[in-house]
Design a protein that fits this description.
The chain folds into two domains: 98 residues, Roll (Urease, subunit C, domain 1); 290 residues, Metal-dependent hydrolases (TIM Barrel, Alpha-Beta Barrel). It has 15 helices and 16 strands. The strands form two sheets. Strands 1, 2, 3, 4, 5, 14, 15 and 16 form an eight-stranded mixed β-sheet that branches. An eight-stranded parallel β-sheet has the order 6-7-8-9-10-11-12-13. Strand 11, helix 8 and strand 12 form a beta-alpha-beta unit.
């Protein structure tokens, strides 16, 4: 379906604003951007853009979609107690139908927040892939690999086998909407040899490598006790970063760690709300930004955040950076907008996404700028980062297809999904 957004404000990833514009898609890509009123192109649907802004759709670069099942479960615990006392035992009860329903619900929540693609690290990955396929979204999905046995080999490790099977079955499925990454869960859950297998496979196959990195002070301290190195130094010494790496959290980094991430081309994922809720700390964002380490945004899972709202993450990231540094002009609203859009697309290996240019994929979110809480608007990027929330999102489009519009989901029965999910939650711990 050809879509024409008529007389709309275009807000691109770099903060560039084009008011009173027309944007035309061919059903997959952006084919033209015009000044309103100068042309009258043919379209299957014309969307009135007055009072609205069209942005590149958002990217959530770190989440665990199926953990929506555990939203609000295990509150008020630090990360390692939260994992060991609540989450790991709950995960032992997971089954296909629960993961599929939770992934669908997570995807629906993200679409409502303007997110068109997410990077996921978990297990039962085929169910998450099926959910992405049904929703029409995009995702980079990875099977989290942990290995505690120093005698384990790559040939015998079942998690590694599952990850490779997932790669063979789903990589570039759904016309490229689904990509398969590899994943090292974290330094504290992996042996050095297992880290090497996973990273070598990712590098050989040209796959992105996801990981958790320096999320807590405990993780940082105990890695130094085990190896005489920080987690970043540990992975660098093993050659892990030779694979194209996306590292989530990056809270407790040293100056040397930051230099290594820059040297090795690692992308860092800022998860401000989850890191605050678990008491993990605050990423040294401005230090990463200053040396040119690419930074994107993630929510983490709903179990450690309670929301999957990337607009909320942008707001927290911007405010925390100012508060942490005591400086308010190091980074600007457009920097955070870029982190949530184009930077996320590039980190997922989606070069033709994340910008409002001819020839790019027609991935958008449309925001209503008329809310009284956003008036007046002197700078569109500032209004989005500091004043908008998910309630402003009125449409999300992926590859030219409308996946969310004013509370409706063309690709799924949202009321049926909510009912099925409620039944799963009600019986989850009694099955």
């Amino acid at each position: 379906m050809k879509l024409l957004f008529r007389d709309i404000t275009l807000l691109d990833h770099d903060g560039t604003v084009k008011p009173h514009a027309d944007l035309l898609t061919d059903g997959v890509k952006i084919v033209a951007v015009y000044d309103t009123g100068k042309t009258a192109p043919d379209a299957d649907r014309v969307i009135d853009g007055r009072g609205k802004a069209l942005l590149p759709a958002f990217y959530n670069l770190h989440t665990h979609a199926a953990m929506t099942l555990f939203r609000g479960y295990g509150e008020a615990l630090p990360l390692h107690r939260w994992l060991n006392e609540r989450i790991f035992p709950a995960e032992d009860r997971l089954y296909d139908e629960a993961v599929y329903a939770a992934s669908l619900l997570a995807g629906a929540e993200m679409l409502r927040c303007g997110v068109v693609s997410f990077s996921d690290m978990y297990f039962f990955c085929e169910q998450t892939a099926r959910a992405v396929e049904a929703l029409g979204m995009k995702a980079n999905i990875s099977r989290a690999i942990s290995c505690f046995d120093p005698n384990m080999t790559a040939e015998r490790d079942y998690r590694f086998a599952q990850a490779k099977a997932l790669h063979r079955a789903w990589h570039n499925a759904c016309d490229g909407r689904i990509k398969i990454d590899m994943a090292i869960h974290a330094e504290y859950t992996m042996t050095p040899s297992a880290c090497r297998w996973v990273a070598e496979y990712a590098a050989e196959q040209g796959l992105i490598l996801q990981m958790h990195l320096s999320e807590t002070a405990k993780e940082q301290r105990e890695c130094i006790e085990r190896h005489g190195k920080t987690p970043a130094e540990f992975f660098h010494s093993l050659g892990v970063f030779k694979a194209r790496t996306v590292a989530a959290h990056c809270v407790h980094l040293t100056e040397h760690d930051i230099a290594l991430l820059k040297e090795d081309g690692v992308t860092a994922v800022h998860n401000p709300v989850s890191n605050l809720k678990l008491g993990s700390g605050i990423m040294p964002l401005s230090a990463l930004f200053a040396v040119g380490v690419p930074v994107t945004l993630g929510t983490d899972g709903a179990a450690s955040n309670n929301h999957l709202d990337i607009l909320r993450e942008m707001n927290f990231a911007a405010l925390l950076q100012k508060g942490r540094d005591g400086i308010c002009d190091t980074m600007h609203a457009a920097d955070f907008l870029h982190m949530a859009t184009r930077a996320g697309a590039l980190a997922q290996g989606r070069e033709d996404c994340g910008a409002l240019r001819e020839g790019m994929r027609a991935d958008f979110c449309m925001l209503d700028l008329s809310d009284i809480g956003m008036q007046p608007i002197y700078d569109a990027a500032t209004a989005v980062v500091y004043a908008a929330d998910s309630r402003a999102v009125c449409m999300t489009v992926a590859d030219g297809k409308i996946l969310y519009e004013n509370g409706t989901y063309p690709t799924i029965d949202i009321e049926r999904l909510k009912a099925e999910f409620s039944e799963i939650v009600a019986t989850y711990f009694t099955r």
